[in-house]
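Archive entry. Fields below.
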Amino acid sequence: MPSSENSTDDRAAREFVISRVFDAPRALVFQAWIDPRQMTHWWGPRDFTNPICELDARPGGAYRIVMRSPDGHEYPIRGVFLEVVASERLVMTMDVSGHPPEWHDLVNPNRARREDDAVGQMVQTVTFEDLRGKTKLTVRTLFNSVAIRDAMVALGMTEGWSQSLDRLSDLLARA
Amino acid sequence: MAVDYLSATFAALADPTRRAILARLATGVASVKELAKPFRMSQPAISKHLKVLERTGLIARGREAQWRPCRLKATPLKEVAGWVENYRQFWEESFDRLDDYLAELQSKGKRHGRKKQ
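PREDICTED_STRUCTURE:
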């Protein structure tokens, strides 16, 4: 739900960006994103499986992925495609409200109710750029939550940082 | 009204004076007087900042009447940093797997003499 906090000006502060170059043509990389039989092989952290992977990659189409951790916990993700441009761009919503409460606790242990979604709705934009036959893949996650935004701004999200207290201290000292 | 834990913590961090206080405390405990020194700020003004930091669990203050040493408590910052770092790690690992998957796909294609478009 839009609020006065989420103006277009602070979009950059609410956005998480990550990129990587893959040694494969765009068409191939794109297929790996929209074909559920392929996505199931790579989506998620190491040693996770995707027992459920359903994708209807067209505008308005829904997707549903259930990740399973090595110790058997399940992490459902679902959403709707907003834009699908072959070999170029995907935009979809991402809803992780189905993740276990323990996961949401990591983000916000003081939610009003245990079953509340700590993260809120995300909009994800995935772009596929041709780099002389290779593909530069960029994932941008736009968070709706003011709390997440504040966290990213305070921690200098775009610079990258680590969990160690020493590095955090350096960041604070530069402020 | 339930307090939004993350918002409170990072509202505390949003102020440059408070960030400077935390940076100083990262090097060791300090009294309010010592903390006030680098700023053209009265001790009551610094104390206001310290109260915000204390309320959000970022610092702890000793109880000695004359000297209330302040020390940094890293836990709330580490927790949020941890969550956001985990999110980045999710993608790094997914990309590692995608990389392996694409390599395997393309080597299979070559072995069967088929050209992938």
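CURATOR_NOTE: Residues 41 and 50 of chain A are 8 Å apart (CA to CA).
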